[in-house]
Amino acid sequence: MKRWKIIVATLAASASIASANQGYDIAVEADRRHSGYGDSEAEVVMTLINKTGDEDRRTLTVKELEGGTATDNDKSLMSFNHPRDIAGTALLTWSVPGEDDLQWLYLPAIKRVKAISSSNRSGAFMGSEFTFEDLSPQDVDDYEYEYLGEKELNGELCFVYERRPKDRDSGYTKEVLWVDQSEYRTRQVHFYDHKNEHTKTLTLIGYELYNDEFWRPSELFMENHETGRKTRMAFSNYQFGQGLRDSDFNRSQLRYGR
Known about the structure:
It is built from 1 helix and 15 strands. By secondary structure, it is mostly beta strands.
C-alpha cells in the first residue's frame, strides 16, 4: 500500500511540475512572438464608463522602448493630450527584471513628479479601471504558472493558464489568461483579488498585424465586476522603429512627454 501511495504522490508531483512548465512555456513563447519591435508609438482614446453608461473621454500618446538585452529595462511613457485639465499628465514606467518596477507620475497642475511606490501600484490610474500595475511592462519571470487546459473563447481555441505574481505588493493573487493557439495573442485576462474573488476582466479586441510581424490589439476593454464601471482604450496609428532612445524615457522627459 505504501508503495502505491508513493507512486501516486510521485505522479501527482510530476503532473504539477508539467502543468507549471507548460504554463510558463506558453508565456515565454507569447513574449517571444511579440518582442523584437525595438520601439513603438500609438495614439489612444481612453473612455471611462460609469455604471449608468455615462462616458468621459481622454486622449493620450503611448510610447514604448524595448530593452536591448534580458537585463535591460523595457520602458513606457503615457502622456495625456486632452481634456485640458489633465493635458500634460504623464506616466513613466521602467520594468526592472527581477526587481520592482519603477514608476513616476507627472502632475502638471502642481508641476511635480511623484514616485509610485510598490504598495501603491494597485491604485486606479487616472480614475480608470486600470491600475498602475496593469500598465507596467510585464516580465515573464515575475510570475509562477499553472496550465489549466484548452478552452474555446468566441470561436477560437485558446490555451488557458494561471499566473501568480511573485510580488507581495501586487493587487492580485492570480490572473487567468486566455491565449489563442494560432498566434499566441492574449485574448482575455481574469483578475482575482486577495479574497480570491474574480473582480475584473480584461478583453483584448481587434488584433491587427503591423510590419508583417507584430500583432497589436486595437482595443483593451476592462470591466470591474465590483463597481460596474468600465474603461475602454482604443489604439490607432501604431508606428514602429521611430528611433526612440533611452533619453526619451527619463524623468526629465515627463514634463515634455507629449
